[in-house]
Amino acid sequence: MTADDAAPAAASTPPGRSADRVHEQVKAMAVTYRLRPGERVNEVELARALGVSRTPLREALNRLAAEGFLIATANRGYTVRPLDPKRVLTLYEYRAMLEVGALRLAAERATDAELAALEAFAERSRDEPDDDIQALRLLALDEQFHERLAQLSANEEMVRSLRSLNERVRFIRWIDMRKGRRPTTQQEHLQILRHLRARDAEAAAQLMTRHITRRLEEISEMIRAGFAEIYTDNALAAQAMGDVA
Amino acid sequence: MTADDAAPAAASTPPGRSADRVHEQVKAMAVTYRLRPGERVNEVELARALGVSRTPLREALNRLAAEGFLIATANRGYTVRPLDPKRVLTLYEYRAMLEVGALRLAAERATDAELAALEAFAERSRDEPDDDIQALRLLALDEQFHERLAQLSANEEMVRSLRSLNERVRFIRWIDMRKGRRPTTQQEHLQILRHLRARDAEAAAQLMTRHITRRLEEISEMIRAGFAEIYTDNALAAQAMGDVA
DNA sequence: GTATTCAGAACTGTATTCACTTTTCCCTCC
DNA sequence: GGAGGGAAAAGTGAATACAGTTCTGAATAC
Question: What is the mean pLDDT of chain B?
Answer without folding.
Answer: 86
